[in-house]
Amino acid sequence: MNTRRLTMAQAVIAFLEKQFVARDGHEQPFFAGCWGIFGHGNVAGLGQALEQSAGTFRYYQTRNEQAQVHAAVAYAKFKNRLQTFACASSIGPGATNMLTGAATATVNRIPVLLLPGDLFAQRLQAPVLQQIEWEHSQDLSANDCFKPVSRYWDRIYRPEQLITALPEAMRVLTSPTDTGAVTLALPQDVQAMACDYPEELFAPRTWVIPRNRPDSALLQQAAEWIRRSRRPLIIAGGGVQYSEATQALRTFMEQTGIPAGETQAAKGSLPYDFSLNLGALGVSGTEGANRMARDADLIIGIGTRYTDFTTSSKTAFQNPGVRFININVAEFDAYKHAALPLVGDARVTLEELLLHLQGYRAPEGHSALATRLNQEWDREVERIYNLEHGSPISQGEVIGVVNTVTRPEDVVLCAAGSLPGDLHKLWRTRDTKGYHLEYGYSTMGYEIAGGMGVKLADPSREVYVMLGDGSYLMMNSEIATMVQERLKVTIVLLDNHGFASIGGLSASVGSGGFGTEYRYREGAAGLHGEVLPIDYAANAASLGAYVIRATTRDDLVAALEQARSIEGRPVCIVIETDREERVGGYESWWDVPVAEVSTSENVQRAREGYEQARRLQRHYL
Question: How many other β-carbons are positioned within 10 Å of the β-carbon of residue 252?
Answer without folding.
Answer: 21
